Amino acid sequence: MQQNLDSDAALLWEDVMALLAARDDLNQSIIAMIDSCVPTSMDDDSFHVSTTLAFAQRKISQHAPIIEECLEQASFQHLRFVVDLVKDTRAVRVASEVSPEELSRLAAQTNPTPPKPLPVPTVQQIREENMAYTEQLAEELSQRDSRLTFERFVAGEENRLALEAAKQVANGYNKSYNPLFIYGKSGLGKTHLLRAIQNYIARNDPSRRCIYRAAADFVDEYVQAATDRSSVSASSNMSARYQNVDVLIIDDIQNMMTAGGTIRFFFKTFNTLMDHNKQIVLAADRSPSQLGMGESKFDERDTSRMDSGLSVSIQVPDYELKLNLINAFYDRMRTDATEEHIEGVVGTIPEELRRLMADRAGTNIRVIEGFVQSCLMQANRRERSGQSISRADIIEIAGQKWPTGQHIVTVDHIQRIVEKFYDVAHADLIGSKRNKELMEARHVGIWLTRELTDNTLAEIGKKFGGRTHATVKHSIAWVDDYKKRDRIFHDRIETLRDSIVDAT
Asked: What secondary structure does DSSP assign to 229-265, as a single string?
C-alpha cells in the first residue's frame, strides 16, 4: 500500500541521508547528487526518488546497492531503490529557498566548532588592501568578462549540474560544495561559470570579497613576490591578500602542475581558507585524480583535497545543446550590435540554416560563438547585395572553422598521446599485462587507431603487440559499448580524439 509521502517517506529519506553521510565509501560529490533528489513514493517493495538530471540519475543508480543497504538499515526491511527522471518545469533561479531551520542544520554540519580567528591586520594594511582590491575588481568588471553571467549561460543536460552548483556557491547558501571543482575539455564554458560566480557576488553581495585568478597568473604573481628583493614583506603581503578573501576562484589549475613552490603556497592558502569556512572554486581540463598523473607535482594529498567537496564535469554538447547555443549567440549578437551600433553583424539567418549550423558545428563553444559571428557577417554582406545567406555559405564557413582531411594521423602518434594521457609505458600498452588501467588504455588506443587511420584490423593488431584480428574487434566493440553507457568516458574519448587531430 502507498505510504504518505509527507510523513513516512520524507522522514525515512532524512534517515537514509544521515547514514549515507556517515559512510567512508561515498565521496561528497555523489552524496550531494543523492541529496538533491526528491522522495516521491514508497510502497512495501520499493522507494522512489526523482531528479531532473539524466547525468545524476545515471551516477546515482550506479550506487543503488549502497543506498538500498542504508534504506534497509533505516526501515528494517529490504526496499528496492529507484531513481526516476522527471522533466524540470521550474524556472532556473539563482537564489535558493532555504528555511532558517535548514540553514541552522547545514551550519551545524559544516561548522561544528568555531574557527580560530585570523590575525587582525592594522588599519593601514586594511586601507591599502581594500584600495588595491577595489581598483582590481573595478578593472575586471569593466571588461568583456562582466558579460559572463548566469543569465547569459546557455544550459543543457551536459552542463546543468555544474550550473546549479555554481549558483549555489554564488548565493552563499550551500556550504557543502566546498571546494567546488568544475572540469571538462577546453571551450565548454568553465570560465564562463567561474566569472558568473564572481560577477554575481560583485553585484549582489559586494561585502563578500571574491578574487578570480587564472592559474598561470597566480604562478607569475607568486614567483614575482618570492623573488622581489625590494620588499622583505612581498611574499607575506601576497599571503595575507589571499588568506583574507571570502571566495577564491582559480581557473585552469592544471597550469600549476609543474610549479612545485606555487602548489605548496596555494595549498597553504587553501587550508587556511577551508579552516575558516571560506569558499574555494577551481576549474581544470581534467578531473582531480587525473591532475596527479604523469610528472605532475600535484601529489595524492593535493588531488584528494581538491576532490573533497563537489567535483562536477561539463561534457561536450550534443546537437540539441549546440542548436540552443547557436540560437542564443545569434539573438544576443544581433541585440548587442543594435544597442551598441555595431555595423556588419545585423544579418538574418533562417531557422533551417541555423539547424544546419548545429549539424556542422564542432564541440568547442568558443569556436561555435565565432562561427555564429562569421555567419552573421556573411549574412549581412549578402543582404547588402540583395541576396540571402545560403547553405553553401554555411558549409564553407563551417569547413574553415572545423577543417577535415588535412592531417595524417599515425599509429605511433596515437600511441604516444594515449600513453601520456593514461600515464602508461609503451611496452605496457602493447604488452601482455591485463590490469584494468592498462586494458582501458589499450582498448582506447586500438579504437582510436581504427577511427583515425586507414590501417586494417590485422595491421592494427601488429602495431599493438601482434594481437589477433578477433582481439582487435573485441577492443573496438568494448569502447563502442562503453561510450554508449558512460557519458564521462565518451567525453574522455572525444578529448583524446581532439588532442590527436589538433597535434598532427
From this structure: -S-TTHHHHHHHHHHT-SEEEEE-GGGGTT-HHHHHH
Residues 150-203 have pLDDT tens digits of: 988 988 888 889 999 999 999 987 788 989 999 988 888 999 999 999 999 988
Of all helices (H) and strands (E), which one includes residue 80? strand 80-85
The three grid cell numbers given for residue 195, joined into one nine-digit string: 566569472
CA distances from 468 to 445, 446, 456 (A): 15, 12, 12
Interhelix angle 28-35/54-61, rounded to 10 degrees, is: 120
Tell me the C-alpha distance between 388 and 99, whole Å.
55
Task: List strands edge to edge, sheet with 38-42.
Answer: 38-42, 46-51, 80-85
Residue with the three cell numbers 547557436: 326
Element (H, E) at 38: strand 38-42
Q: What is the average pLDDT value for the chain, to the nearest integer?
A: 81
Q: Which residues contact 269 (CB under 8 A, 6 or more apart)?
A: 239, 242, 243, 248
Using N-to-C axis directions, what is the helix angle for 260-275 and 234-243, rounded to 10°?
A: 40
Contact 457, 450 (CB under 8 A): yes
Q: pLDDT by residue (tens digit) across 426-459?
A: 999 998 887 877 899 999 999 999 888 877 888 8
Give whole-number Cα distances, 74 to 7, 67, 350, 387, in Å: 15, 11, 57, 70
Amino acid at 104: S
Chain Cα centroid distance, residue 419: 24
Give the Cα separation of 53 and 497 in Å (integer). Answer: 27
* pLDDT tens for each residue of 203-258: 888 888 898 999 988 888 888 877 765 555 556 667 777 878 899 999 999 988 88
